[in-house]
Amino acid sequence: RAAGYNAEETQRDALGLAGMLRMLNEMKKPTVARVQGPAYGGGVGLVAACDISIATFDAQFALTEVKLGIIPAVISPYVIAAIGERKARRYMMTAERFSAAEAYRIGLVHEIVPGEAELDEAVGEIVDDLLANGPHALGECKALIKAVANRPISQEVVIDTAQRIARVRASDEGREGMAAFLEKRKPNWIAKT
User: Fold this and answer.
1) Residue 25 pLDDT greater than 90, yes or no
2) CB burial of residue 82 (10 Å; 0-12, 13-18, 19+)
3) How far is Cα 100 from Cα 97, in angstroms, rounded to an integer?
4) What is the pLDDT of residues 69-83, one digit of tens each?
5) pLDDT band at 191 (very low <50, low <70, confident <90, very high)
6) Residue 24 scores a pLDDT above 60
7) What is d(CA 106, CA 100) in angstroms, rounded to the nearest whole number?
């Protein structure tokens, strides 16, 4: 359907994808990509926009846009952030397929597992780990990473990070987490089972 779009429709479609990727990237809640099978073009962008990605050994990846005479423009900020400019040059320009092992090596995925059952288990473990953490702290952590990534450790960054920890530590969640640690109990955001 998109092949028949005019320039205005194409831009609207691209902005829709861009908005979704940005939402995934900036969402206060952690996002986990569960990859099995092929992830081509925009699929690679989805994986790159997530905070954590796990794939099966047989997953395949490719940035295929140039084979179609187009470019991976909308996904490029996320892909380049995940794998770096140098590797992006190769895979965006060759459109070659690469394995899950290569995706792991270049930083697109964090973990690879043998099959679907192990994928479910690995994703479940990650989700359990995430659920054990302060829900607001997770969002603050994502914002922190965005604020300091690829910046020199300037006085401005030092002050910003000190202000962030002071604000979060003084929050209700921060106080509860510290109290739970000192009292050797689970914090109140963890469901009692």
Assistant:
1) yes
2) buried
3) 10
4) 999 999 999 999 999
5) low
6) yes
7) 10
Q: How many residues does the chain have?
A: 193
Mean pLDDT along residues 140-160: 93
Above 60 in pLDDT, residue 193? Answer: no
What is the Cα–Cα distance from 79 to 108, expressed in whole angstroms?
8
> DSSP class of residue 65?
G
Sequence letter at residue 6: N
The 3-class SS string of 24-69 reads HHHCCCCCEEEECCEEECHHHHHHHHCCEEEEECCCEEECCHHHHC
Residue-level pLDDT at 10: 85
Confidence of residue 192 (pLDDT cuts 50, 70, 90): low
The C-alpha angle with vertex 51 and arms to 28 and 99, in degrees rounded to 5, equals 160
- 98 in helix, strand or coil? strand
Closest CA to 34 of 121, 134, 146: 121
Q: Are strands 60-62 and 98-99 parallel, antiparallel or unpaired?
A: antiparallel
Say if strands 52-56 and 38-40 run parallel, antiparallel, or are unpaired: unpaired
* Residue with token string 């987490």: 177
Residue 142, Cβ neighbours under 10 Å: how many? 18
